[in-house]
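ok trying this again, last paste got cut off
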Amino acid sequence: MKVDEFEFPDDLLYDENHLWIKVDGTTARIGLTDLGQALYKGIMHIDLPEPGEEFPRGDTIAPFETIKSVSKIIAPLTCKISKVNEKLRENSEIINESPYGEGWILELELQKPEEKDSLMPISKAAEVYAEVIKKEKEKYAYLYE
C-alpha cells in the first residue's frame, strides 16, 4: 500500500516508531519503514547489538547516527537478538537504499509472542503514518511554496 509517496507492504506489521516487523511464529525480522528511512535521511552508522542479547519491549536496541542527529531503534517486542544484518556494519546506508530488502536490521526471537497483537496491520498503520506525513508537510510547508 502507498501512503502519499511512501510504500508500506501489506504483509508486514508496523509500530509507531517507524519499524516494520515480519513475524513468523516466534521469530521476527525488523527494519525501518520507507517513511522512517526518509525521515532519518543519511544513516551514517548503526550500533548493532550482539546475538543473544535480550531486550524488553520499549528498550533501545540499536542507536544510529544520521547526518543531522542521533536516533534509536526501539524494541517493538520483548525479544532476544538471533541475528543482525552484518552488511550494515560496513554500509548502514543500505537502510536508506532498500528498507524492506537488503536494509533489514535485526532478527528477533520473541520472548512474549502475544505482544505482537500490539503491532499495527497496514490498515491502522496507514492512518497513523498519513497523519505523520501531514504534520511533516505542515512543518516544512515553506519548502513547497
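PB: full thing came through this time. The first strand starts at residue 2 and ends at 3.
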